[in-house]
Design brief:
Length: 87
């Protein structure tokens, strides 16, 4: 039997490592908003994740230390497979 259900993004879990952990910054315009830096996701997945949750982990087997609702994203200049932002 063929599975005709489309995969849907329901949340985004990111492991902070190396340079990418430096991109996590609190928004200067809102106390409870954070800029999470760059994600390696396609444009359709990024669109689908707006309104869903993001969770940041310090390691693959560690509990998340920061999380919340994704309220926005922008495409990384020159690379449509990478989204930037996500607050």
């Amino acid at each position: 039997m063929e599975n005709s259900m489309k995969r849907r993004a329901v949340a985004l879990h990111l492991v902070e490592k190396g340079l990418y952990s430096e991109y996590l910054k609190q928004s200067p315009s809102a106390f409870d908003e954070w800029d999470t830096g760059n994600w390696w996701v396609g444009d359709s997945s990024a669109k689908e994740l707006v309104g869903k949750n993001i969770y940041l982990h310090l390691g693959q087997k560690k509990m998340s230390h920061l999380g919340g609702e994704i309220i926005s994203y922008v495409n990384f200049p020159g690379d449509r497979k990478r989204a930037v932002g996500g607050k």
